[in-house]
Design brief:
Blueprint lengths: L4 E7 L8 H4 L5 H5 L5 E4 L1 H4 L4 H9 L6 E5 L2 H6 L6 H11 L6 E7 L8 H14 L3 E5 L8 H9 L2 E3 L1 E3 L13 E2 L3 E6 L12 H12 L6 E6 L6 H13 L6
Length: 250
């Protein structure tokens, strides 16, 4: 059975600036980053919009098989809380379409206070699906999203639930397991025990590599290290890359 395509990287490419594995390479920070890693998650889009032309420029700086995941703006997820977002979604999708075929995924991260409401969620994801067929993943952080009803809705809307580490305390281990649409698995590791700072030990990375290899029914696996505040994420990504070489397609 064909192994899943793996997209491996960090939350942002600035991690390549000054890192010894990248510093000897030529080009912009992004152009250096893509020599070692096959994907990146754009988090800056959560805080501020980027022009269509900016996304076009970023795409042009990467090889044909490189992929971007883009985080949906907080104005949509946190301020509007998924309601009355059609105009904002239109604008966002028009912007990110500048990445062309290199737009691999959209990340919808929800605030911890946002409970699952089936009609709100169905309407939002239907609006999004009406604008793009790009793979979409959701990182909910309220316990109500980890129910059979929420799981069914995500699957219906072809949205995968992020496998996040560490799991939110109020959710528990369910948050560490993927859910929703089974065709995509998206690991988003934030650093543990100290979020955004802590590096993952070799044993955790080896276990993750084994888990990825066993996901033979999946089309795509994304692994994004968000523990980038002190540079740990890029080291973890490079180590996982070594573990996966020969085991799946990058």
């Amino acid at each position: 059975m064909k192994a899943p395509t793996i997209h491996l990287g960090c939350a942002g490419w600035s991690v390549a600036s000054g890192h010894p594995d990248f510093s000897r390479l030529e080009g912009t920070v992004l152009e250096r980053y893509v020599h070692r890693l096959s994907a990146v998650e754009i988090n800056s889009s959560f805080y501020r919009p980027h022009r269509h032309s900016t996304y076009v420029r970023w795409a042009a700086s990467t090889p044909h098989d490189f992929r971007f995941s883009v985080k949906v703006p907080k104005a949509i997820t946190h301020t509007a809380r998924l309601q009355d977002t059609q105009e904002a979604l239109n604008t966002f999708v028009e912007q990110v379409n500048g990445l062309g075929e290199k737009l691999g995924c959209l990340l919808v991260q929800l605030p911890p206070s946002l409970a699952f409401e089936v009609e709100v969620a169905r309407h939002f994801f239907a609006d999004l699906r009406g604008l793009t067929t790009v793979r979409t993943v959701c990182e909910p952080r309220h316990p109500s999203w980890f129910t059979a009803e929420a799981e069914a809705l995500l699957t219906e809307c072809r949205v995968s639930r992020v496998a996040a580490d560490p799991a939110p305390a109020k959710v528990g281990e369910a948050a560490r397991r993927p859910g929703g649409d089974p065709h995509t698995v998206y690991y988003r590791w934030h650093g543990s025990p100290r979020m955004y700072y802590s590096a993952y030990p070799a044993e955790a990375l080896a276990e993750l590599a084994r888990e990825i290899r066993n996901r033979t029914q999946v089309q795509e696996v994304w692994v994004i290290f968000d523990n980038t505040a002190a540079g740990a994420g890029v080291d973890n990504a490079l180590e996982l890359r070594k573990l996966l070489l020969g085991g799946a397609t990058e």
